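Exam revision sheet. Question 4 asks you to relate a sequence to its structure. Input first:
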Amino acid sequence: MAEEVIVRRRSGFLDRLGRKLEHPAVLPGVLLAGIVFVIAIVIPATRNDRLVAYDAHAYYQAAALQDPYRTTIQGGFDAVGGLYEYKYPPPLAQALAPFHAFLTWPQFLAIWAALLYAVFVVMGGRWALLLLVFPPLLGELWLANINLWIAAAVWLGFRWPAAWAFVILTKITPGIGLLWFAVRREWRNLAIALGATAAITLVSFVLAPNLWRDFIEASRTQVAATVDVPRQAAPLSLPVRMVVAALIIVAGALTDRRWLVPVAVALTVPFLWWNVLAILIVCIPLAREDARRRRERETHRGAIARPVPATTSPSVG
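Answer key, structure tokens:
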């Protein structure tokens, strides 16, 4: 009884807070903050600041497709002078190649940062204002990594499984999220996700087989680093995290809690930097949708269980 009271009070507090965050002035304020953020991150880029958005800078440089894995191959995972090391499979660099050809670095960053912020606002919903003080999100926006794109792909992947190709062809190991489909025996969704990944990989390899050979060679240093964890990352080896993540996904699949999948995805990113926790933002829309689905099922079950009133036959004569 006491536990139910605590849950109701907590739910009531969140509902009241959520209603306050739906005030008409909040969204314009969040959007204004986004404009300020884009300007603040682009101005240092015009001055060739090496530390601003250096993850996005790595993607931009790799998009030139000029030996993007050389630094990692020659110097190892954490190579000295390898600030802009590109560590993902080739498809992302290939997809960004047209943008590199037509946009300068500050122009590319302005578009990239604006899109990242837009993704955050859509996923954060009415909680976006409060999330602006969530340190991993602030770090993610400043570094301009792809973790928010990963979160969006996980969200979309429940409806359009092909979106999982982005997760697998960037961070790779968070693809363990596909275990959700296997546990629930959603074989068609699993086939679509794997098929889309295979198709993109094939096209990418046909276009640039040399990039894939270099990526495989560079990956040797990364595989070792997932066990011998690099500095500044959480001191948890990837094999241990993969096991824990698999258990989380199985639990979520069996209890229909989709919001647990991004928890497992964040846990299995090859190197658990602090900004990776920005992926957890997608738990908000997924938890909201899970709750709505449960209410709909309960309503449906209630309608079925409700007894049908007996009809009386009209009297004759």
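Marking note for examiners. The CA atoms of residues 63 and 97 lie 4 Å apart.
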